[in-house]
Amino acid sequence: MSGAGAGPSRRGAGRAEASGSVGAMHFGSAVPTVEVGALSGEDFLLDVREDDEWNAGHAADALHIPMSAFVERYGELTEAAPQDGRVNVVCRSGARSAQVTMYLRQQGIDAVNVEGGMRAWEIAAAVRWSTRRASRASSPEADAGVVRGPAARPVP
C-alpha cells in the first residue's frame, strides 16, 4: 500500500453479508458478498477477469486488473480506488473474485465479492431492460422509437 490515508478504505465501514460459497466452492464465512442489485453507478468496481473476457464486454467505469496479474498490478488498485470506499470485486461467476476479495481483506481493504459475477450482472441488466421496455410500451418515448437500456450492458 502507498502512504497513510491513500488507497481504498480499511475494514469497517458498511460490511456486507458473508455467504461463504461460490457455486460448489466453499470459503467458510470469510468472503463477504454484495448482490448486483445493491450496487449503484457510484460504487467502485474491480473486474478481475482476463483480457479476452473484458474485451467481450464489461461494466462502465470498472477498473480492470486480471487476476493473473493482480499481485504485480496491485498498485493500480490502491491509486484508483476511493480512499474511504469499498472495493466491489467481480469476475465471470464469482469464484476468482472471491479469491481476490479474500486477498484484499487480508491486506486490510474493505472488499466484497459481487455475488454471481458478471453472469448475475447480465441477468440483472436484462431484467431492467425488459422491465423498462414494457413500461414504455405506450409512452411517447416508445412511440418515437426511443429505448434506453441499462447504464452498463456487460457481456460475460
Treating each run of at least 4 consecutive H or I residues as one helix, how many helices? 5
Reported for the largest beta sheet, the result is: 5 strands, parallel
Query: So what's the overall shape?
Result: globular
The average pLDDT is 75
Cα(first) to Cα(last) distance is 31 Å
How much of the sequence is in beta strands?
Answer: 5-15%
Instruction: Give, in order, the helices and strands.
Output: EEEEHEHEHEHH
| Portion of residues within helices | 25-40%
What is the strand tally? 7
Structural class computed from helices and strand pairing: alpha/beta
Rg computed from alpha carbons, rounded to a whole number of angstroms = 17 Å
Residue stretches low in confidence (pLDDT < 50, at least 5 long) are 1-6, 9-19, 21-26, 138-156
Strand order of the largest sheet: 3-7-6-4-5
